[in-house]
Amino acid sequence: MDSAFNEMVPYLTKEQAHFTLEIDITRPLDELEKVLADFLSRRETYDSLFAEMLAPTIQQNLAEITRLPFDVELTDDEIIAAARAVMPLEWYQPLVKDLVSQIFAYLRGEQAELELVIPLADRKPEIAAALGELADEKMASAFNSLPVCSGAHLLELLSDPSLENILCRPVDISYQEFKELVGIDVGSLVQPLIEMGIPDEWILTEADISQLFGGEEEDNILNQVRELVQEGLVFDEEDLNKVIGTDVALEDIRQSIADGLTFTEQDFKSLMGDTGDTGAGEQMKAFEQVRSGLGMAKKWLNFVWIIPFLLLLAVGALGGRQWSSKLIWAAALLAAMALIAYIIFGPVFSATAQPVIDQALAMEFNQTEGITSLMAQKGTILAHNAVDSFISGLRNQAIAIIIASVVLIGVGVVLHNWDKIRSAWIQRE
Question: 103, 114 in Cβ contact below 8 A?
Fold first, then answer.
């Protein structure tokens, strides 16, 4: 992002007539793959995909098993519920990562064709068992609700036992016994229909996926993203013109940046006066009072240093009888004050004030978007540099004063003991 901003600056300042930004989106694509895989693995996402994609397919392919003997029907909701029970979230989640990786491999150009395969063969026996059990329960209930056969009906039924067009049930024969008598297993009725109605693999071809992403050719978002990933994102002055709207507006902006903006106190007063606010005059008076106060403070700021200087002189005068002791006392106080200043603008500032400043700058500039965001990032860097430069200057001054104070203390000690030092030299000689 910094390189893109730096590439645009010479164009905006009219140092260059053209600019071209080439943005590699491969790295953001890796992060997008992780985000998409996580999103598709969520329960609410799977519920939506199952209801909108899998459920209609299963419902259409298994429409033939809705009609059963005894006028028993399996509703669409019952079929979908049975399929949903044998295709839980735990079955779906391991498939997501592989499917998403295939899609992004196609987008990156790592594979020429896209074909997603969802295995269903291991689910088919469980779907058949679930639907067979449900159908068996409903047929048992329907059989038990039939009237008892009369003698003639019983002879007719026993001569040709069948589940088709049965109107009565033999007395003292249960549904299970009647099934054994007839020799029919409900599961064997459902299993072939499941085998024929549900494929072993649900294959989504590139054409199928293209339909999901908006059609074919130019309208296909999938192809557009693939071309963008492989060719990279190129943004030049023509694209910038389209974003802004007209060439005139862009040229005005470039000319203003190149010439610079001059804003005088008259412009400021005119701006305040043109607001139409009745309180504009009072605001200008308050502003002038603040300016006057700041000017007065600036004049007296040079005299503020007289106070600590007089304090040092007073401490030096009262701290000793000799000039050497006076110098030691004054230098010691100066060193202590410089050490306190270094601690305040060093560890204390880094631990307390610096995080607050960083947070305030982040909150202020994170609310911007687009080109304003890029400029805000540069503004944040400049603000950090300004604060760091100011604080480091104070720390360096404090260190310099500490060193100077130590030197003065050393000079004072030497002067204070000069007679002893000179006597020692004389004795040596």
Answer: yes
